[in-house]
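Proteins fold reproducibly. Look at a sample protein:
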Amino acid sequence: PLGSPPRPRALSEREPILDPSLHQHLDRKINFVAGVIHPWRVSAFERLLWRACRGYLVASFVEMPEPMEDPATGESITWVIFLISYWGEQIGQKIRKISDCFHCHVYPYPESEASRADTMSGLHSQIQDLSVVLEETEQYLAQVLDKVVLVLPTWRVQVQKMKAIYLVLNQCSFDVTEKCLIAEVWCPVRDLTQVQDALRQGSYKSGSSVECFVQRIPTSESPPTLIRTNKFTAGFQSIVDAYGVASYQEVNPAPYAIITFPFIFAIMFGDVGHGLLMFLFALWMVLYENSPSLRQASNEIWLTFFEGRYLILLMGAFSIYTGFIYNECFSKATVIFPSAWSVATMANHSSWRWDSQPSCEPLSRSRPALTPPRSAHSSAYLATHPSLTLDPNVTGVFQGPYPFGIDPIWSLATNHLNFLNSFKMKMSVVLGVVHMGFGVLLGVFNHVHFQQRHRLVLELLPEMVFLLALFGYLVFLIFYKWVKFSVADSMVAPSILIHFIDMFLFTSNADNLPLYRGQVPVQTVLVVLALASVPVLLLGTPLYLCCRRRAPRTGRPAVRLGSRGGGGQPGGTRWGLTAGAVPVQPVAVGEQEPLLEGQEAGNSVNATKEDVESGGHDPDSEHLDFAEIFMHQAIHTIEYCLGCVSNTASYLRLWALSLAHARES
């Protein structure tokens, strides 16, 4: 009927939105624009489209399920896909211009459904083809890399050799004809034959028509220092080189540091347990030192430990030794031998008794102080004696020195720290003075070797007098007090520190008894000798060289330090003295005369053979700069005198760090 309301029709996905009859009257075509846009620009893009087109469009935005890489920046972005439907060509132009302004990636959108299906199937086939190509490419690259891994060590060696060859060639120079290379190098005497053989073999294998040869040329320059090391000595040599490299043919202190460095470390780190852990760790690195995984590690800290494995091995071994001396294993005392102190004997000869083992409390002087638990027999005595001291004056209480190290009863004593303070402080001073004196005595070999015997009297002797008159005397007082005063008169023993202070003040202290008769005059003489040695050390060598230059000379003495030890090698391999080195010059045949004639005056070829063999240490040089010599000697004197004081105090760190390690462990 006409008055009834229209019934709703069932809608389908394929049914057009507009009425077909209306569409025919409008005669308009619906177009589409599809593309992707950055997610940050979606809101602004949508607002501008709506305002510019006045709503004559339908836009749909959907995020991609997976992020994709931006081809311009390489950034991984979750793009937003948009599909815009519109009517009219003018609106389409506006949409395309706005899309270009927002840097959108616009893609063609087929009009018919069949075209869209064909496009989708084509894209899927392209994706499958690209996936197959990528997979095959990855497999091929994996095979290539597997083959490269096998030859990579060989390539690395070849590249390193080529770099080394080009580095050497870049340091060479052309001759006047620019047909041959000339290289001036320093070569150890013992390796000179090998260099000649290598040049001869290189010329033969390369098929060169010009043979290489080596010519020895004189020079006045001091040769560089060559120190031959192996895997054991390399770590110790690097420590010495960190402070300074010895001059040519001087004594190398590294062999002595192999013993002194680990031992000084062990004084600070003396513990059997900790030293054993360090020793086992270093032993593991030594046993597996040829393992590629250990040698080729990229961790810089690990490589530092690995290169110093032998140093750590000796430090661990020496720490075990000093740990037995300190009688400490993980900071706990061990009872290897029976204690030399008898508590039962002390109990039988005194008024205190107990029924169980003693506990520890601090003690005074050098005798253990023990605190027993209270009992019925000792309550009255303990009320007035909270700390009970073992008296070595009582017969049988102290039965003699402990066989090795410190008696374990000291770990139970309450004055354990006071006892170790005195022991380790004096030990540090004694070892420090001995170590410094040994370093000064090494200069004897340098002075004798370079024929500079005047330095023995004008430098070495004042240095030893200054060191021994002050700090050597301190070591003497330590040992003298240990020997002279026994248990019976230990309570009246004077203070060494007060005596040492009074020594510099030229006074005496009535409250501090002298150690021996005539101590004050002896100390006064020693201080005067120490002070008198300073001007000798400061002015002796410069004045001697000045007087020697002004004295008339009949001729110049030729100092020849020929080969010592056979084979034409001066000094061996720096275990004692630096290996000898001579300048050599590989040149081509026929180029010898022009080379020598082309040298300028004052160059290395005008020096004498004696200058080469003495390593540039010529005491009779005509070009002595006395201002420079005096300045150098003044710096050396100030550095030595202040160093003796500061180094002696610095050795007390052995005492401080040793106590800190024992207490914190």
